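ESCALATION

Customer reports they have been waiting on this structure for their group meeting. Please prioritize. Original submission:
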Amino acid sequence: MVNRLADAASPYLQQHAENPVDWWEWSPDAFAEAERRGVPVLLSVGYSSCHWCHVMAHESFEDEETAGYLNERFVAVKVDREERPDVDAVYMEAVQAATGQGGWPMTVFLTPEKQPFYFGTYFPPQPRHGMPSFRQVLEGVDKAWTGRRAEVGEVAARISKDLAERASVYAVGSGIAQPPGDAELHGAVVELTRSFDERRGGFGGAPKFPPSMVLEFLLRHHARTGSEAALQMVRRSCEAMARGGIYDQLGGGFARYAVDATWTVPHFEKMLYDNALLLRVYLHLWRATGDEQARRVALETADFLLRELRTPEGGFASALDADSLDPASGKTTEGAYYAWTPEQLTEVLGEADADLAVRLFDVTGTFEHGTSVLQLPHDPEDMDAYRRIREQLFEARAQRPAPARDDKVVAAWNGLAIAALAEAGALLERPDLIEAAERAADLLIAVHLTPEGRLLRTSRDGIAGANAGVLEDYADVAEGFLALYAVGGEAAWLQLAGELLDLVLLHFADQESGALYDTADDAEQLIRRPQDPTDNAVPSGWTAAAGALLGYAAYTGSARHRTAAERALGIVSTLGARAPRFTGWGLAVAEALLDGPREVAVVGPAGDAGRAALHLAALRSTAPGAVVAVGEVGDTEVPLLADRPLLDGKPAAYVCRHFVCERPVADASELAERLHGK
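Update from on-call: job pushed to the front of the queue and completed.
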């Protein structure tokens, strides 16, 4: 027998459709039911590729006795955090404030008025390691609710008030500070060196997450200032990740994080957003240095996206699970798809090549039960043998039961993928990657964009979900459209980006302070309006919007959009000095602002080889946040291209800042040199 979640659009919610728990989706009806019955709400938040979410579901939500107790005394609400990041953000802040930590599954008990009063994450089926069992938690909350209702109400009201006051700090502070200047950006680099792991790359200890947004900031800082310290942090981190188990040595693409400090054993789920962001970082590292490892990783990651995450409709799925079926044990376990024993290598490769593979990929029992996650500690001496072994192992692995895929299309993450693939296709001369980016963008327009021009956050099988887009959706999709314009020169992409950014200014911005909210002013009202300028696994919507606004202003000369970007970056002056690891994208955008950003207009007949060479040279520039417009003489659709004549009858490139341009050039190498100047 199935519950209400059988009709949900989210694959994660559908995974709970056969639970004996009487689940509701987040909806007014669920809270009305709690009010009618006079019971609290159990809010359980997770996502499809979350390992411990599956564990808790199996241990507790599939248990008939536990479900019966839960159904009798609570209204149970299940939320996919990827569908409702606003709900997740509001209550995760409460969990972190109350417990000092967060994570998923997130378990929160609410009043029927949506006010939280008890918090946690994963709870085991029996007490363990100082944690109460889930049943004990249910019993304790029920006892408090029925015996001390007034006290519970007071606690819930106080917590909700505290959350609202926390949010107001951003709204007040962001309109005061100026955007970071050279001293603040240098200070952020110095602060990053204090937590940088010089031996193993990355920042901090275990668990270790790919610092994609910080690396982008450091690349831009190096490009603007020539800082070798900044570049070396990027080089060391990118090499260590590419050689570690966090990178799929057979199929390309990165896992979400490493459980250790050495990048050896990953938490095996692969997320679209990580791979889109890291593709761009490795691409930009290659652009800055010519590093062949970075080029290879960028291409392999792009191919992974197309091969394993692209949906039939042309969008990109959210994630691959960490868990898969292990045929040897008959159990679904974490990493079963990716780990190898020496015996398995011999079975596929034969003894001679298996011995080589053991040495090549460091198969020394780095994971569980004598298995290893493949690494590449050193460059292969025999590249032909490496390619042969890699191909054979990849084909053999493809016969294993594959991890499940969350085929939900998230607008923001597809925007990140569009930007990365469009740039990679242009810089690495892979037109198929640009075509994939365009097709994903077409899907967003056809399915996620409403007739009123508003974005919907998710779709599945080409059918839009009901959840309104949040700030990161508008910002990252606009970023993707700006990248498509830069590589292809179709003015429609620039126009669409501008329309989305106008909606950001209309519905997400605080008109007095310039602060940005994560949800629109006409979105569902939660206990507070979520607002966070710090990066998490993806750029914050706040700073992503600042970056897109700045880029759009550079194309159009719009003072309104540039001013909005500058006001939004005020908060980075405060946060960047204290916590640069969590403000990487804001710092990267600030680098672009300080550099101009530079505006490059390339004019000439379509199909002309000279124009193509100038265009590619402009795209290969490392100038932070540089925008590139390409078109024919007389093009008036894009302000940056207006009134740009040829140079002695030849295609020409104009390098400008704030629409004030240097003399034009017709030679691609001269353009590259001019854009390289610090």
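Sent to customer with the following note: DSSP finds 25 helices and 20 strands in the chain.
Escalation resolved.
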